[in-house]
């Protein structure tokens, strides 16, 4: 039954709540985190990855003139 609680996020201590000023992870942040863990053993850290993905979003928006889809970026 624990897998059901984890899937729905209703178990005690199974959800990660955002506290304070920490940003909510979107799909772009999750993908960067996954790649960092796979190829770099997680050495960059969350703050550095956030700066990288923010820079990529800004560059994309400047180059294309379009906003990044809200499903991908917050």
Total DSSP helices = 3
**What is the structural class?**
mainly alpha
* β-strand number: 0
Whole-number radius of gyration? 15 Å
Query: Could you describe the largest sheet, including whether it forms a barrel?
Result: none
Order of helices and strands: HHH
Shape: globular
Region (Disordered): 1-43
Biased composition (Low complexity): 13-25
Describe this structure in words.
Residues 13-25 have a biased composition (Low complexity). By secondary structure, the protein is an all-alpha fold. Helix content is 54%, strand content 0%. It has a domain at 23-60. It has 3 helices and no strands.
Keywords:
globular, single chain, mainly alpha, 74 residues
Topology:
Elements: H1 2-8, H2 27-40, H3 46-64
Helix pairs in contact: 2-3
State the gist of this model.
The protein is mainly alpha-helical and 74 residues long. It has helices at residues 2-8, 27-40, 46-64.
